[in-house]
Amino acid sequence: MSDHRSISIFEIIKVGVGPSSSHTMGPWRAALFFIEELARKNLWQSLQRIEVTLYGSLSKTGKGHGSDQAIIAGLHYKHFRIISRSEWIALLEANKACHEIALPNGGHYKFNPDEDIIYSKETLPFHPNGMTFRAHTSADVYEHTYYSIGGGFVVSDASEAVGKNMVKTPFQCNSGEDALRYCKQLNVSFAQLIRANEHAWHNDKSIDNQAIELWTVMKETIYQGLLSSEETLPGGLNVKRRAPLMLSKLIDLSPQSANELFDHLRGRSFDFAQINTWVSTFALAVNEENAGYGKIVTSPTNGASGVLPSVMAYAYCFLPNISERDMIECILIAGEIGTYFKKGATISAALGGCQAEIGVSSAMAAGALTSILGGSPYQILAAAEMAMEHHLGLTCDPIGGLVQIPCIERNAMGASKAITASNLALNAEDNTSKVSFDEVVRTMMEIAQNMSAKYKETSEGGLAISVATPEC
What we know:
alpha+beta, CATH 3.30.1330.90, 2 domains, 5-stranded mixed sheet, 21 helices
């Protein structure tokens, strides 16, 4: 699905809630949009009941991804950026008890998820993640269809997806070739080019503040995942959290905050094996938090949200002369690379399999790491290309429809590949790659189009059907 509108990096990398950007955050945002739309049409006073139909991939794996829980919270007009998990659970329990939802104006309407969320076998033509909301009022029925197109993005139709009300950036970049041309023409670094375009939305102070906020949330998610007292992840697969145990084997310390943990690591020396284990531990910590409905940073999706933070933490903790300022640059570079995949291919597993999630996140992280280590614009894109190249064809076949197996471990693999790709790119000369970044983006999309729907977040093939699972 080609999308050539201007996209801010903060649309690609943003604070979210687990376990899925397309199946949790997407339906949540759609519910928020629908409630706002009803308000604009003055339908709150006459609203009696809301009904939601999920289609395609949303229907097939929605329960495992918490789509129903997200819809309930969204219909309560609560935003995932500010609601706590305990508040979310309280909303679910209240709805279970009375099958009603309160509106901000004090009114109530009927909503029983067992009856009012319909899991259709149909797939809508525009996108596999379609959903239709219907408001039953005292006079009529009003409905609106939304599509969750990956990474938490929600649109109503094709025209909205490809650039209605497009923001104009001074140096429009839809591809790696565009970026290389502008960097050379303007004699600027990749990060400087990105910042110049980001000024279409934000000034420098806002860019820096938002990037630091994202890095702060990343550190906090790692910390929460490492120190979690929850032994088993929700969903019925009985998957055990491993990050806390791995932490206990790495250091004899119980840090009281994320900053204490990171300061401790920055002040110590580790050998290669230990650093490698730390990278995997960081990645598992994030995605175990994601699987537990925790707060994460979507980069570019929830299922792949452990790759970029673990690579950034690797650089921040274990590489010399890396500062908070470098973390801002990481966000800039990673976000921009993510926009090229969204514009030229997809970041939705329901369209492209896991290559569109872990593959893209690994490419984003590889480019970001290469940039802060002094790589040229060409080397940055070469690193991103290599990281994606070795994820091509990766399927999305989650067992039980949960973002757990193989999703959690894949984040560790994606982080390792990103670091390796960066190293290879930094040790190569410019203009020596046989495969360009743009060629790998096009190839990824071609593979996505040829991939069976069984391997696109439907849990109808691969590991999802070959591994015996307990009754959830």
